[in-house]
Structure prediction request, 201 residues.
Amino acid sequence: AWNPGAAGWTPRLVQRLDRGTSGLIVVAKSPAAHAALQAPAARFDKQYLAVVWGRPAPPHGRLEGPLGRDPLDRRRMMVRATGAPSKTAYDLLARTTGEGPGLSLVRCRLFTGRTHQIRVHLADRGWPIVGDAVYGTPPRRRLADPALDRAARAFPRQALHAWRIAFRPPGASADLAFVAPLPADMRDLLTRAGLSLPPAA
Prediction:
């Protein structure tokens, strides 16, 4: 609980999101909560939804490329041998039908929390996130549906959403879990693509 009488204390972010990523964040409302949630023993289960170019295969897997700064552009991350270990699990939830590159809805679970981790891991495998101006260059080949192709190429941000987070607050005996519904822009893109979340997601 937040103690408003704590001298000089301001609520602080525990979990951050990249600019342009929608969804859940965690804010500590007391010094004790902030320290506990930042401690090495703290455990978070973080799941994201992303709309990507391409058709991830196999439909389930783990991406474990080490991540480090791009030596040519320090604002970017890249998979490189000298980078920090990182691990992302992914599940293909839905994909467009027909020939061509297509779009896919992917659920990602973070096992580490490196900068731009999901965005880099997916792009490195050839499945860049729609709308990602840094890592998400769309394929040259157009989608079969011209209206969908225009909507995907004009998407104004990376189509990445911090969808679900679970953690155990300090002093609690059980985990808390929270889910943030997809924002309107991603829902509209999925509707145009004929994609939807499966009931189990």
Notes: The chain has a mean pLDDT of 89. The longest strand covers residues 44-53. The chain has four helices and eleven strands.
